Every structure is written in C-alpha cells, then in structure tokens.
Automatic annotation (TrEMBL):
Residues 1-105 form the HipA N-terminal subdomain domain. Belongs to the HipA Ser/Thr kinase family. This is Iron permease. One of its GO terms (molecular function) is protein serine/threonine kinase activity. The lineage of its organism: Bacteria, Bacillati, Actinomycetota, Actinomycetes, Mycobacteriales. The keyword Transferase applies. Residues 146-381 form the HipA-like C-terminal domain. It comes from Nocardia mangyaensis. It holds the Pfam family HipA_C. Keywords: Kinase, Transferase.
Amino acid sequence: MWLYGHRVARLTEPGTYRYKLEFTDEALDVFGQGARVLSLALPFGTKAVVDKSGAGGRPVSAFLEGLLPEGNLRRHLAASLGVTVIDKLELLRAVGAECAGAVQFLPEGEEPSAGTIRELADDEVNRLVADLPTYHLPEGAVPQASLAGIQDKVLLVARPDGSWGWPEGGAVSSHIIKPEPLGGAAVPHLIQTEHWAMSVGRSAGLGAAQTAVESFDGRSALVVARYDRTHDGGRLHQEDFCQALGLDPDAKYESTAESERLGSRLGRLASVAADRAIDPQAFRVDLLSAVTFNVIMGNGDAHSKNYSLLLGRRGEVSLAPLYDSAPVMYLDPRFKGTGHIINGRTSIESVDEADLVAEARSWGLAPRVAQETVRSVMARVWDAAHSIDLPPGAEQVSDKLEALWVRRHWVGP
C-alpha cells in the first residue's frame, strides 16, 4: 500500500477474506507514530491491524471495501478479471493502482509510476459509457481503476484537446462519468437534477463538485471532475464517512438503534474529525452546512458513503465538497430518509430548523452559530434554486421543494 508515493503498509490475507495491514518503517519515519493520514480509523503504528470476528472487528476489510464498487459494476469488474466479487485482495491487485484519494495498491516489488494514457476514439468512449454496467473496453484494455459506489461509472482522463483517455499503469484519472440509470426502478432525471443540485450548491457558496451533463451514443451521463485530483495530475487523499468510522459500506445508512447505542453518527464523526481540522469550529459549520443542504434539497440518499473527508499530508482534516447529492425525494416520494439520524429524526419531511440546530449543538457548536448557519444556508440555497433552471421534465421539483419549505416554515418563501 502506497500513499503520496510512500510505501506505508503491506496488505496480506492471513485468513479467508480477512485482511492484515503491517505498517512500514517508512510510514512511521515520514508521517509519525499514530498519524491518521491514511484513515481516521487506521492510525499508523508498530502493531499490525488484523481483521477479527465479531461486530466492528474488521477495520481493514471495511477500509478496503470502501475503495471498491458495489452491485452490477462490482460483478462485471470481477468477471472481467476472472476473480470472485468478495476477493478484495485480487480486485485491488488488478485495479488498486488508481483508487479514490491518494492511496495505491501494487503487487510486492512494484513501485508507483506515472502510467500511460491510452487515447480513445469517440466511438470507443461512446460505447464504453453507453453500455455500462457491461464493460465494453477498448481492444486490448483491461480495467485499471477503482471507485466505490453502487452507480455505474467509469474513470477517464480529460485530454487538452477535449478528447478522453483511458488511464493505464496507475495513471491519474481526472473525471468520473456516470450514465443515466437503466431499468424500470430507476429514478427519472436523476443525473440531470444532480447536476442542477451541484450548480445550486456552488451558487449558494457551498463547496460542490464540478459537473456537466453530456450524451454518449444517446445515453445522457453526468461528467464529474474529481475533487481528489489536482489540475497538474496530482492526488489528494480522501475517505468517506464509513471508512473514517471503520464501518462497512453495508452500514452506510445509520439506524436508530445505532444512534441510541453509540450516539449520533454525525456527532461521532465530528468528534474524531473536527479536532484534527485546522479550525475545528469551521469544520463543524461546514458539516452542518452540508447536512442542511441535503435536507432542504430533498436528498433522500445522504448516507455515510455520500459524505467524505480530505486528509492532508500532516493529518489535517477538512470536509470534502458535496457530491452525489440530488433532489431524489422530489423526484420519487419513496426516498425520504435522511441517511443519518438528525436529532432523532429519520425522515426529511420531519426535520425542521430546530432539529438541525439541536443536532449541531450536540457536536459542540454554540446555539447562535448553529442557528445562523442553518438560516444562512437556507436563504442562500432558496435564492440559488430559484435562479438556476431545472432540466426539462423535472420542473415539478420546484413546486415540491416550495411546498415542503412552506410546510416546514423554513427560511426562504
């Protein structure tokens, strides 16, 4: 396992699908004993971290699982590589040279390299994206990169001439391309309204991923610029909230039982992350702003895989930009959940300003700061949502958004 070009750990499988991390002397020399630059849940140390039986006993597996895709994409990836979907070691051996963040996995004896970018013809890109989740790769190409999540997606490199390239040998990808979901259960206008929501977030002064909607052989797709990549092709490290708390992606939705037993998941995250931020109060304000945005925008899928942290080389922590945020509740009323427990609430329709303030107070924010943050975000998002046009066919989002805001007495109307 490599991080920022440093060999920081050796990953092995001492038991069937149980994993072990042994940190290197280089990791301790460069980053220091106890450094949490890889994951808040995996501090560097002289003692190996080993998965064990029982709840919460598989921290290495949880971290690795957070780097790999789920669902159809995982099955197609495994099939194309000739391995099983549950064999994380073999999956990462094949595609781990380009993962989320700055972490890389390479077979023993190999070192990171700049890799190469395979030039793709327009018809190759169109087929690659339009046929997902089936991988119709360019001739001679094999899967090279890994990104977590259940949505079908591919990682490509934007070239200076406007064409796309296929990253090979650990080359840095620059964009995520997510085509419109297929099938009868798919949420209509999902990618178009995700682009709209990201535009609203940026217009409201919140950090949000840069997105665009493009067509590939007639299939619309969301093109997302990676926030964990620099303009000059460098890597920034990040992890999602599940990884930071040592949770398997299967537990991405917080349960009431978990909240009652351990306390609010957002509160626990704030506790471990804010103290490592350059400005702890600013981190809590940023977290509250993101949670408020997802609630008032009707994002019924704001679980722990859809929030992330940026981890600096010195261990400094900041909240990653908003991503995977769409007004799904306004598109499909089945999706009303908050993803995280917010002051005991689990439905967007039941969360009000007081709940958001009370939740933030439990993280250590002063009541005045929390209330001012919530009201400011509400007002700015209201203005932005009414100044940016919705995509054709999704105009009902505006009516449903306004109806909920009036019903909840939120700032804006």
